[in-house]
Amino acid sequence: MSNEIKTTGNDVNTNRINIIYNNQSKQMTLDQIFDAEKYPQLMGVTGQISPEFLNKHLAHFVQVEIAIGSLPNYHHYTSMENVTKDALANALLNTANKESIKLFQSLSSQLQLAALAGVLKLEIAPTQVIHSRFYLLGNPATKETRVILGSVDLTEPSFDVNANRFEEVMVFDNSPLYENLLSHFKRDLRPVLQPYFTNELLKVAEKQLKALKAAKGDNDNIIILSNDETDDISHREMTNLIVDDVQHQIDKQHLSAGVTLAMRNVTDNRTQDQDKEERAIKQRDTVLMLEKEAVSPRAARPKIKKREVIAENVENAMSAAVSPQDLAVEKKYTTFLYDRPLERNIAHNKTGLYTPNDAGTFPIAFGKLATINQIRDGIHQIENVIKGYQQFVVDFTPEYGKRFYEAIMYAFTAPFLWEIRQRASLNPEDGNDIPNFLILGASAGSGKTTLLRIINQLTWNTDNSLIDFGTIYPTDTNQRKAKTMQALESYMKQGSSYPVLVDEIEPYFFQQPQYSRRLIVDTMNQLVNSPKPYAPLIGTTNYNSGFTMRRETARRTYYLQLDKVIDSEKKGVASKYIYAVRKDLNNTLFKDFVVRLANYLEDDSTPWRLFDHTTGELDFLATTRKIFRDYYKLIDEPVPDYFSDGLRDDFGENARSKWAKLYLTQKDDFIYHEEKNSLLFDITRLTTFNGFEKDSIEEYRNALPVEICVDGINGKNGKFVELKAPAFYDWIGVANPQLHPEKAAEEAQTSAAQEPEEEKPKKKSFWARLFG
Questions:
Q1: What does the pLDDT look like over 243-261, one tens digit per residue?
Q2: Burial of 125 by CB count in 10 Å (0-12 exposed, 13-18 middle, 19+ buried)?
Q3: Where in the chain is the domain with CATH 3.40.50?
Q4: CATH topology of domain 394-585
């Protein structure tokens, strides 16, 4: 978002961000409001604070102390419930969810060091509800001061005029308000505040920083903690919240001694409005039970139990939240590659990508420019792979080979896809044009699993990162399908941007909306509205005539079809060939590639909205294609004819082919409705009784584009599908018999004289697209 804050949004008559400077309306940028050059010290209270805002707008302050208060709550709690059911429960919940750790790890290395040095202080009040919002800027040298009041939080969305909400920003320079609010902060707020970046967190971070400095090599001072480390930190923090913070507030008489009784009764009279999400309920129940069990069960005035008892309760509660089986499933994801654009340094070829060192104790930079000879070797490795398919796959063509190159280029681009999505999107909906899912629909015996392993070798120099979809959970697991989907979702949201490689995804996953919608549609919706480095998913699935995806899933998925098989008579030779090729594969070219793509990401002149000349879709791999073409120039070799020069539309072609064949073989079942210039088709005829597969009705229904259906989505639902006749005929590539009866009759005669399986690669008619 630009630093400039306009006073109006889309509606020119509506002033959504109301900025008042010294009692006068004024337009100011965020950096003018939070002027770190003029006022090097910042103190205040906010409801929310985002890493983006900290990194972008607060990084230049010399000293920062911010208390993070509470968000508005629609519950009408009593005074004591404000402590037990709001402040303390939310503090425990945020700690369990590692919110402070996540914020710390999202800071730039500069701000991480500032937090360790104590000049960046974030605080919370775990036993108080704070709705205050004010920010105090000062300059000890010049004695100049600034007060900022209003409804805004320290997040960029708070200052976004397109957020369709009203915000107040009142700025007063050298006002008596400064001393008043400063005194209030020191006298009233500070005594109830506790560090948000706890000693538990800072000690572990400092330990990793010392390890970084002691290690040999050119390492950056970026701190990325492992899941095991953050788990341990979170457990200790939760114990401290109850044992130290609550007791301290009682001892200092900032809390009534009756709070322990309220904690013991905290589970009484649970309100039903917390039943929105099952996961949230379980989490909240856990922290409330921890509160209850933290005090003596029968005393009239309960006391906090001993640290050892509470620590054991916390450990047991956190362990019970994840079963041993679920923990084993979580450990199947083993490959971590973190994308940190803030740490990117093009002058030193720093990509912003980091991977844990072998011991997992600190992150090391990933990416290194290759020599010309190394680039030549890397390109030849890819070509040798595709030449293997060229030699041993039945009816291999250069056009077919492009799908293999396309899959490899998608995998190379995967760690940066979330950044490309941000740069290429004019609005959030555009983000769906850059899918976070690549599915290889392949016939049995087509070499799809081998291709997935090759992708793993070319990018990570190993072939052990594959996850077998069918064995994520044992076959006898209760709710196995739902749990498998949840596991994939968890893998994608680990914070790593290296693709999740999944083999043999079962067809039900794509066909049943409770699985495909939650993972693919919902994940993409989250990404387009709130960009994050979610790992892309590259998966294989068995292709056959019955494979289908729901349209909403296909819209957000890049689908490549590998439906030609390896010649059975050549399988022995093919195995030996590919074995020899794979022995020489490495990720040297990938390491070079990420440096080059990182350079393009840092170049503001790089065009990201380039559209495919064939499909008209946004070509999110256009820069990748340019880099690979440059590789061929560097090694002075021609680009092969199987080089992927554009996006594929295999799902769309499958859909067209499916309906074209249906129409050509059952024309009499398509009833022309002259009044609407439409075609009616009874889709319930597609049953096993008539020779179709069991799920053919949904397959054909899913394959229909909404835009060719009368009344949109309503036209493809129900017993009778109603199609716009001109659009349907144009889509399947058949002459409209109502407009060209002679041409339609000629095509019918031609089709009767031809063998349907015969390929005519030079012909551009419908038949070439259908059977070619």
A1: 888 888 888 888 888 888 8
A2: buried
A3: 394-585
A4: Rossmann fold (3.40.50)
